[in-house]
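Example 3.2
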Amino acid sequence: MTKKPISKKPAIKNKTADTPPSRRLPNRNVYPFFQKLAETIDEPVTELEYASTFELLIAVMLSAQATDVSVNIATNKLFPVANTPEAILELGEDGLKD
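Structure, written as tokens:
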């Protein structure tokens, strides 16, 4: 009896009428989507707390992996100590973990 090798790649399924639509926005729709958002929302609001564009960038990157509330807790400790790329670099990995 021979064993069938286990494939690590998922089988490619053919799309059918029952296949749910992709959750990914097709590239051709991205720019019009953001244009519509800009027209509709004059002043976008976020729960993230920040005082500069760089702080917003860091907060948004962290929010991809955590809630806005937990990001604010972390950045309220981080930004008084290091709120520029140079200051974060000076902290080093160990300092940043602390």
